[in-house]
Amino acid sequence: MKKAISASARLRALAVALLLAVSLSGCSLLTPSRADVSPEQTLVKLTTPTIKTKGVLTVGYTNEDAPQVCTDANGNLTGYAVDVARAIAKSQGLSVTFVSGASADDLSEVDLMLGATTDDSSGTVSVAGNYLEDAPALFTKASADGSAPGSLSVQDLSSATIAVQDKSQTQDVLAKCGISAQQKTYSDVNSCLDALAKGEVQYAACDATAGAYLARAHADIVFAGAFDSTTTYGLAMKTTNAELVKAIGDALSQMTVDGTLDAIHQAWYGSLPMSLSDATVSGITTSAERKQAEEAAKPQTATDAAGASSDGASADGTSTSSTDSSASTTDAAA
Q: What pLDDT digit, counting tens, does each position of 74-114 carry?
């Protein structure tokens, strides 16, 4: 005859069984494995003819430009801009494919193009969003507490030694921006950062994004400031595709608000600020300012002089209007 098992005995047996299962599996009951978690589903928000291929966002790039767009050791396309494009596609419920050799002048084979600037905007091309700022920049050793230095000025750098890649565009900008520091040249950016790490120089000058990417190998090297105007990068699309322009612009805005863009930026560039225009060395002369000064210094052509004479003087050579005279003086100064 079987003995009846009490309710309390059944509960004790169940508890022992659960403890045994946990001890054997080595897993917490509250932590499911990755295989047990269903992938997040995103509603498809764009389809043909807004995009070229159903379910796929086709993204173009002109050429590889590490670390924005590059190929990893396995031959796969990677980079900051590539990750941004993937995040945008995911937000629209799409997969993504990349096409090399794209141009803002010809978007016929792609939905959008990475690396566009305001110069690419036209009547037929819209540049949406701002996913990256870049500029020639200085890097230095972090303070004792690991923090970046405060704001820099041209005067602060007057007695410094700066490492820079020989015959590079950065070296050319450094020589013209008003920083009178001593330059020490190296064969590449990695060598410049190594020299900084060893204490051979006080600063290293290079492209901000390339420097920040490579500086991740040096725990004590940080961004110090930009020393030229920043270049802002966005996404080029056909102006006539208003639905796509709006959707991509909204997606980038949402990524900025929810921190997705910042997280991708930190993964590739560490502590480099998203906005470099707010971290410029004070007292420099930017490329744009130098170009403006050069234009103002150009001698007037005969046509310009004739136009100025016609606008600002009467037949006997006297000024016809004090207002016109003031305007001419202002234009010349500009």
A: 999 999 999 999 999 999 999 999 999 999 999 999 999 99
Q: Mapping DSSP to helix (H, G, I), strand (E, B) and coil, where does residue 231 land?
A: strand
Do 239 and 219 fall within a single domain? no
If one counts the domains in the chain, the total is 2
Task: Give the SS3 label for residue 81.
Answer: helix
Q: The tokens of 78 are what?
A: 């990677």
Note the pLDDT of residue 317.
Answer: 44
Q: Is residue 48 in a domain?
A: no
Amino acid (one-letter) located at 334: A
Query: Edge to edge, what strands does the sheet with 231-238 contain?
Result: 95-100, 56-61, 112-116, 231-238, 125-134
Under DSSP, is residue 282 helix (H, G, I), strand (E, B) or coil? strand
β-strand 161-165 against 203-207: which pairing, if any?
Answer: parallel
Same structural domain, 168 and 237: no
Cα 246 to Cα 77, 92, 109, 237: the distances in Å are 27, 12, 20, 10
Burial label for 215, CB within 10 Å (0-12, 13-18, 19+), is buried
pTM score of the predicted model: 0.76
**Average pLDDT value for the chain:** 84
pLDDT (0 to 100) of residue 323: 41
Compute the distance between CA of residue 302 and CA of residue 310 in angstroms, rounded to an integer.
12
For 10, the 3-state DSSP assignment is helix
Percent of the chain with pLDDT over 70: 77
Residue 19 φ then ψ, to 5°: -65, -40
Q: By CB neighbour count within 10 A (0-12 exposed, 13-18 middle, 19+ buried), where does 325 fall? A: middle
In this prediction, residue 40 has a pLDDT band, given cuts at 50, 70 and 90, of: low
Whether residues 84 and 210 share a domain: the answer is no
Residue 161 belongs to a domain with what CATH number? 3.40.190.10
Cα–Cα distances in angstroms (integers) from residue 19 to residues 9, 16, 25, 90, in the given order: 16, 5, 10, 41
Domain match, 215 and 245 both: no
Tokens of 241: 């595709």
Task: Provide the 3-class DSSP secondary structure of residue 232.
Answer: strand
298: alpha, beta or left, given left = phi > 0 and alpha = psi -120 to 50? beta
